[in-house]
Amino acid sequence: MSSYVTLPVTIAGDYLVSLSSEGWIDAIQDGAEVTWTAHTADPDCPGLRRSVRFTHGAKPLTLEIVNAPRSTIAIAITPAAP
User: Fold this and answer.
1) Which domain holds residue 39?
2) 3-state secondary structure the chain
3) Which of 23, 29, 39, 81 is the most exposed, fewest CB within 10 Å of its CB?
4) Number of folded domains in the chain?
5) pTM (2 decimals)?
6) What is the pLDDT of residues 25-53, one digit of tens each?
């Protein structure tokens, strides 16, 4: 099952999108998939299970959450460290 959320993005750059449980994150901007540049996962870390790094422009960004085992998970979006 997939879930989608579209976010207004006002500043272009590198961001980490993190999930509180299992799953995968895809990003779509201008109708095209945004290529991830790095990712991490830790099955033993409660609350911060996976992070994926994306570089994207200052335009609406749609996130697709795939294979999440729960119907509700937390998503955090933070600027990536250089």
Assistant:
1) 2-79
2) CEEEEEECCCCCEEEEEEECCCCEEEEEECCEEECEEEEEECCCCCCCCEEEEEEECCCCEEEEEECCCCCCCCEEEEECCC
3) 81
4) 1
5) 0.83
6) 999 999 999 999 988 888 887 778 889 99
